[in-house]
Specification:
The complex is a heterodimer of chains A (265) and B (247). With 265 residues, chain A is an alpha/beta fold. Chain A has 8 helices and 14 strands. The chains are: A alpha/beta (265), B alpha/beta (247). Chain A: GO terms for molecular function: metal ion binding; phosphatase activity.
Chain lengths: 265, 247
């Protein structure tokens, strides 16, 4: 495998993908200095896109929060794993049982959900109860495809770490002996789709995120460079859990932007 | 018994006839919603001749392991199972034990178990069985194995399974009977956990076509039962016939 980190200096960077939760903000608190750092990045000649596995919220919700926290961005610049899931449902004309938070259902308006023949799982603590999971289990056992918006193990909440959808997807995969189709990070297809309208190849893009496996590992596996930030769900030693290791591990988003502006343009 | 299939009850009654023969009889269950006393009492009320001492289930086996190893569990089990752990110190937990907690498998409870594990320097998870699902009168339901996988995935660890199909579990039953594996036969509806588990121990395994049996089991890639019979009644008939024929 190529030692990606050695190629950094001579690369023509055209796009920066930025994770949201844990990287630009943690719930209702912005990462200090992140707003200014984003503005500085926009002054350089790179395309910027915000990519997120957050499945609890629709794009509008995400945008509203980011604007409240004084981040400068538009709805079209946001690409979520919910968008990726919707695309798949439309392509295959599935009727899904949607295990997603009410606030995320907005992104599925227009999709038929009666007599479900597919199961879509996002981050939905309210739905991860015994009865609903049994319902999903029976559908998948009978042949319905299992679509996972992503398989994050956990995420950071104000009161500590909390289980992501990944463990529940793993539970259903085991019980049904079937594999889920994952549409979010760290799937290659997700990163490819995120870059598709930016007119650049993966090797001309860098991803900044707090999740070593899903953000950095996934991006690097798709041919991009990855910068791991020590905010959000980051835990000491995460950088040693992926191979190759991150192109850079730094304190937070502002430091990542400094590095890009100084060394990668 | 709870699957609603009356044929099973017939089979169970027939199994009692094994006691009259020279064959030793033990009941191996991964039942983890109720303590042994409770479900044995239920079976006795239904007319079955069965004693607690003949029953092997994961909870008492787990309690013994915990005490042996000086472990203090955070329990995520059905309330009915708690009495099996009364003699185990549960303060300041240094491990997690999950059983078939059914409706207690809420997001909050699973999250709590997850947090206990991630806060431990040496996270340790015991699962009372690893079944994928089971059948009840109102349909198929996720079993403890699915939730075990959830926590394994979340914490990036492997659980220790107490109960079928763990070899230690089958071995403890054989020890109790004073028998070698080749002298024993396991009859069950779960191809992987009953039959497969027994075979890995050196026993023979017979699958019955009731409960969680599915037709695909007869062409399973990993486990081939030594025999597949329609029901426990048939299995017992065949066994007793064989005993009579053997000089």
């Amino acid at each position: 495998m190529m030692e990606v980190s050695n190629m950094a200096g001579r690369r023509a960077l055209k796009a920066v993908l930025i994770d949201l939760s844990g990287t630009l903000h943690v719930e209702e608190t912005a990462v200090p200095g992140a707003q200014d750092a984003l503005n500085r990045l926009r002054e350089a000649s790179v395309a910027v896109k915000f990519v997120t596995n957050t499945t609890k919220e629709s794009k509008k919700h995400l945008l509203e929060r980011l604007h409240r926290l004084n981040f400068d961005l538009q709805e079209e610049e946001i690409f979520t794993s919910l968008s990726a899931a919707r695309t798949l449902l439309e392509q295959k004309r599935h009727r899904p049982l949607l295990l997603v938070e009410d606030s995320a259902l907005q992104d599925f308006t227009g999709i038929e959900t009666s007599e479900p023949n597919a199961v879509v799982i996002g981050l939905a603590p309210e739905q991860f109860n015994y009865q609903t999971l049994n319902k999903a289990f029976r559908l998948v056992l009978d042949g319905a495809p299992l679509i996972a918006i992503h398989k994050a193990r956990y995420y950071k909440r104000r009161d500590g770490l909390a289980l992501g959808p990944g463990p529940f997807v793993a539970a259903l995969e085991y019980a049904t002996d079937r594999n889920a189709i994952v549409v979010g990070k760290p799937e290659k297809s997700f990163f490819a789709e995120a870059l598709s309208n930016l007119g650049c190849n993966p090797n001309e893009a860098v991803m900044i995120g707090d999740d070593a496996r899903d953000d950095v590992g996934g991006a690097q596996n798709a041919g991009m460079l990855g910068i791991l930030v020590r905010t959000g769900k980051y835990r000491e030693g995460d950088e040693r859990k992926i191979h190759p290791s991150p192109h850079l591990t730094c304190e937070s988003f502002p430091e990542a932007v400094e590095h890009i502006l100084k060394n990668m343009l | 018994i709870d699957s609603g299939d009356t044929g099973i009850k017939r089979g169970f009654r027939k199994a009692q006839r094994l006691k009259a023969s020279d064959l030793q009889l033990r009941f191996c269950t991964n039942e983890t919603q109720a303590a042994r006393e409770t479900f044995v009492a239920k079976l006795q009320r239904l007319g079955f001749d069965i004693l607690v001492s003949e029953v092997f289930s994961p909870a008492p086996a787990a309690a013994a392991v915990l005490k042996e190893r000086g472990l203090r569990p955070h329990l995520l089990v059905y309330d009915g199972l708690l009495p099996e752990f009364d003699s185990v110190d549960q303060s300041n937990p240094n491990c997690v034990v999950i059983g078939d907690a059914a409706e207690k498998f809420t997001y909050q409870n699973l999250n709590e178990a997850f947090r206990v594990l991630t806060d431990l320097e040496k996270p340790l998870l015991f699962s009372l069985g690893q079944g994928r699902y089971y059948k009840e009168t109102d349909g198929l339901k996720l079993d403890v194995g699915a939730y075990m996988k959830a926590l394994e995935y979340a914490c990036d660890l492997k659980a220790e399974v107490v109960g079928k199909p763990s070899p230690t579990f089958f071995q403890s039953v054989l020890n109790d009977m004073g028998l070698q594996p080749h002298e024993a036969l396991m009859i069950g509806d779960d191809l992987v956990n009953d039959v497969g588990g027994a075979q890995r121990c050196g026993m023979r395994g017979v699958q019955v076509r009731t409960g969680k049996y599915r037709p695909g089991d007869e062409t399973h890639p990993a486990v081939t039962a030594d025999a597949t019979v329609d029901s426990l009644a048939r299995a017992v008939d065949a066994l007793l016939r064989q005993r009579q024929q053997t000089p």
